[in-house]
Amino acid sequence: MKNLREMKTILVVDDNQELRDALTEYLGRSEFHVLTASDGEEMWDHFHRAEPNLIILDIMMPGDDGLTLCRQIRQRSNVPIIMLTAVTDEIDRIAGLEIGADDYITKTFSPRELLARIKALLRRTQPAQGETVAHQLQFSGWTCDLIKRRLISPDGEVVPLSGADFNLISLMLEKPHQLLSRDDIARCIWGRDADPFERGIDVQISRLRKHLHDEERSLILTVRNKGYMLASDVHTV
Fold first, then answer.
1. Could you read off the pLDDT of 181-195 as tens digits, one per residue?
2. What digits encode the pLDDT tens for the residues 220-236?
3. Cα–Cα distance between 227 and 237 in angstroms, integer?
4. Quick one: pLDDT at residue 87?
């Protein structure tokens, strides 16, 4: 059994008491330290005190809704965020990804599926203990800092990235000039294949293009019905 210092802290933000209690019990059995909040005020109290490793954030809540809170969190932190959405609310799922959520899951989820998503996201956003990264990658005037997990523009401006943003640009920098299918991208940022009609991949690509000021889509190419490609040489610093 891990002690509290060794546990990853998960903050569950949802106004449903039964759901909060169920996730606290289930994730606690999986050796996570779970904190819960019913609204934004409680969330910020835990956020500042505990610095959680991951946040599970419901979209529909009284007061500030989950999308508002997600946007506010992203202005301060790159902590991984999983949005909880209603089954039919694709617009909300897309909106969540657009403002920086790393993944989403509908409220019909099984606890086992949520646990798998949490573990996959933590693996992809937090280096393993003892892991060292000793270089930066440069491309088309941009620099990707693999230690601080951030993007630096040709003008020296630091561009904060969410976990999903960083994983996507890292994947493309590992495979420049190579076609990446939607499943390749989904497995990298979410740890699963893309659903046939899922728009989340397109949203993540759009977010990354905005970060890179790639309005003409000349840096990240779309290969129709096949996937995407980084059209740049990459150099190790």
1. 988 998 888 877 777
2. 999 988 999 999 999 98
3. 28
4. 64
Nearest partner of 198 among 114, 85, 116, 115, judged by Cα? 85
The residues, any chain, with a CB within 8 Å of residue 152's CB and separated by 6 or more, are 142, 143, 144, 145, 158, 159
Q: How far apart are CA 135 and CA 42, in angstroms?
A: 39
Cα 232 to Cα 237: distance, rounded to the nearest angstrom: 16
Q: Which residue has the higher pLDDT, 85 or 222?
A: 222
Q: Residue 203 and residue 97: Cα distance in Å, rounded?
A: 7
Give the phi and the psi of residue 159 in degrees, each rounded to 5: -110, 105
Say whether pTM exceeds 0.70. yes
Query: Any idea of the CA torsion for 123, 124, 129, 132, to the nearest 10 degrees?
Result: 160
Which helix H or strand E contains 165, and what residues bound it?
helix 163-174
Task: Please give the helix or strand (H or E) that residue 24 lies within, else none.
Answer: helix 17-29
State which H helix or E strand residue 66 sits in. Answer: helix 66-74
**Under 8 Å between Cβ of 137 and 173:** yes
